[in-house]
Specification:
The complex is a heterodimer of chains A (317) and B (276). Chain A is mainly alpha-helical and 317 residues long. Chain A has 13 helices and no strands. Chain A is globular. The termini of chain A are close together. The mean pLDDT of chain A is 82. In chain B, 71% of the residues lie in helices and 0% in strands. Chain B contains twelve helices and no strands. In chain B, helix 11 runs antiparallel to helix 12. The longest helix of chain B is centred in the N-terminal third of the chain and has 37 residues. Chain B starts with a helix and ends in a 7-residue tail after the last helix. In chain B, 50% of the residues are buried. Classes of the chains: A mainly alpha (317), B mainly alpha (276). At the A-B interface, helix 2, helix 7, helix 8, helix 11 and helix 12 of A face helix 5, helix 6, helix 10 and helix 12 of B.
């Protein structure tokens, strides 16, 4: 398994390279190159602009710029933030943890609530429960996160003052885990609710099928009680397709997190990407993008490895 | 395709009806909208919903209902175009990969893997902020982030079809690759591709509105539903109707497309999910 993990990690390197090349080329598109930001400043003299272009290597051919950038990236030099006047790496890595808190919280909520709902409806097997689940999953798939987030913030935050109106903690106070969690609840539920809808349906369908299998009937005949029968015998098999969708959903989860971060002023990578794109802070844009891509690839790798833990039939060859 | 199954699916039919209403209303917006969507009127700013302005007015005194109707042309038209472009691109690329295999398959697979590693919204944000954004370019960008799923589907379909006898017969009678793909393979995969295309309309509405909400959409005065939410953000506390109605319209449209797509999927696979 360790060898498999290593091989998969190495195997994803070409993918990372391709992505970085694609993103780098995208950033060379015509409108508003980095030097334009300075050129737009009326006090900047042509010499100053030239000097800045030479300093950041913007006057050299694209392929040279790319190779230089790539070499620097590998050596740990991720460029210098135009707007914050400090290394882009520091700016970006500060935000990574915050995004992980949010996506982790949303995943946890989505999994717990989704599994609970799916199991409950699979066991009740009433038509009404099934219809309600279907309707709920349609709504969950269709409500845009930025809208539900805005409404939650307006009603529960501003109007009723139940939740903090954004950010990760009270301003000016030392870090406290309870404070962080207090701020995390609303955005994590908003982001996670999309997946509650989807995953509960998968759990429902998978569990319903597993409960009809012979090994569950055998367990019942041997006198295994209902709850252990469901959770020890049927559920692990129903959970395997869940891991598959989970892996496929990661890019969209990260996209959703970006929007949620903006709505709830959560200082994560998505919010950073939005502000640095609007401010044309290229090194930060590039570093944030690469980190988001790395997040997706690592998450994909982890889901693949999770198969092995859940399904002993999977062999890593 | 078993259309009878679709006719017996009340949820899908409701979705279809809502979409028809939304679509017709948006198309007819210039004639049925009560006000000019861009006409500002300082006297009427931030009016709550009333008999004159059914859904209220925004901070510039523009009628929200009229703007919603006109924005529907952008949001729905764009989503439809994105879905069509994605299905065309995806079935061609995926079909070729499945039919030719080998190096072509590996190349297309690598492109798809690359695109799938980038969160779709991030890619769309980057692309639209570095281009002079107009409608055709926005359609191209959104198609770029949505065709990969269709391509995988088309590849799988072609792989399962290409060894069938009718394909062999076409090959034996000298059909070219293009003819094989367009005349024999893809038409036989039309049902699943159409289902995927329908569901893509929902995804396209969502991603376009998210993009506009974040400020990376089309420049004003062209408004989409997401763009309306973006413009009104500062006023949400004073004017709830500015926050509620555009979002509700997006949700309604997306939910309708989703239930219709699910209904079509059930009809295409010949399974009645309501009974199974």
């Amino acid at each position: 398994m360790l060898i498999y993990a290593l091989r998969r990690t190495l195997g994803s390197l070409p993918r990372v390279l391709l992505v970085s090349l694609l993103l780098f080329l995208l950033l060379q598109l015509p409108a508003g190159g980095p030097a334009d930001v300075f050129a737009a400043d009326p006090t900047a003299s042509p010499e100053a602009i030239e000097r800045i272009e030479a300093l950041w290597g913007l006057d050299r051919p694209v392929h040279e710029q790319y190779l230089t950038w790539l070499g620097n990236l590998v050596r740990g030099d991720w460029g210098f933030s135009f707007s914050e006047r400090r290394p882009a790496r520091d700016v970006v890595l500060e935000r990574l943890g915050n995004t992980l808190w949010l996506t982790g919280g949303a995943l946890a909520f989505g999994l717990v609530a989704g599994v609970a709902l799916g199991v409950a409806t699979a066991l009740s097997s009433s038509r009404a429960a099934r219809a309600a689940l279907q309707l709920l999953s349609v709504i969950g798939m269709s409500v845009p996160t930025f809208w539900s987030g805005t409404l939650v913030l307006l009603w529960f935050g501003v109007h009723w003052n139940w939740i903090p109106s954004g950010g990760m903690g009270r301003v000016g106070e030392p870090f406290a885990l309870t404070d962080l969690l207090h701020h995390l609840v609303a955005p994590a539920i908003v982001l996670g609710s999309v997946y509650v809808a989807q995953w509960s349906r998968f759990v429902h369908a998978g569990l319903e099928e597993a409960l009809r299998e012979d090994y569950v009937r055998t367990a019942r005949a041997k006198g295994v009680r209902r709850l252990p029968r469901v959770f020890k015998h049927a559920f692990p098999n129903a959970a395997i397709p869940l891991v598959t969708v989970l892996g496929l959903e990661i890019p969209r989860l990260v996209s959703g997190a970006m929007v949620t971060e903006v709505v709830f002023s959560w200082p994560g990578l998505g919010r950073l990407l939005t502000t640095s794109l609007l401010g044309r802070d290229y090194p930060v844009v590039m570093a944030a993008l690469m980190l988001l891509v790395a997040l997706v690839i690592v998450a994909n790798l982890l889901t693949d490895l999770a198969y092995g833990l859940l399904d002993p039939r999977v062999r890593y060859g | 395709m078993r259309w009878r199954l679709l006719l017996r699916d009340p949820l899908a039919l409701t979705g279809l009806a809502i979409l028809l209403i939304l679509g017709t209303a948006s198309l007819a917006a210039p004639w049925i909208a009560p006000y000019d969507p861009t006409a500002t009127s300082p006297r009427d700013m931030l009016q709550a919903p009333s008999a004159q302005h059914w859904l209220g007015t925004d901070d510039l005194g523009r009628d929200v209902l009229s703007r919603l109707l006109h924005a529907g042309r952008v949001s729905l038209g764009l989503a439809l175009a994105v879905a069509l472009a994605s299905v065309a691109l995806g079935s061609l690329a995926g079909g070729l990969a499945g039919l030719l295999g080998g190096r072509v398959d590996r190349t297309i697979g690598a492109v798809i893997d690359t695109l799938l590693a980038i969160p779709p919204l991030a890619l769309a944000m980057v692309a639209s902020s570095f281009l002079q954004l107009d409608l055709p370019r926005l359609i191209a960008i959104l198609a770029l982030v949505s065709w990969t799923g269709v391509a995988r589907l088309a590849r799988g379909q072609v792989l399962s079809l290409r060894e069938r006898e009718f394909v062999e017969a076409a090959r034996a009678s000298g059909a070219t690759t293009g003819r094989l793909l367009l005349r024999h393979l893809l038409p036989n995969a039309a049902a699943p591709l159409a289902v995927a295309g329908t569901l893509l309309v929902a995804t396209a509405i969502l991603i376009e509105s998210a993009l506009s909400f974040l400020g990376f959409g089309l420049a004003p005065p062209t408004a989409s539903w997401g763009g309306m939410l973006n413009e009104a953000q500062l006023w949400f506390q004073e004017a709830w109707w500015l926050a509620v109605y555009p979002g509700l319209t997006i949700t309604l449209a997306v939910a309708s497309v989703n239930v219709l797509g699910e209904g079509l999927r059930a009809a295409a696979s010949g399974r009645d999910e309501g009974v199974a």
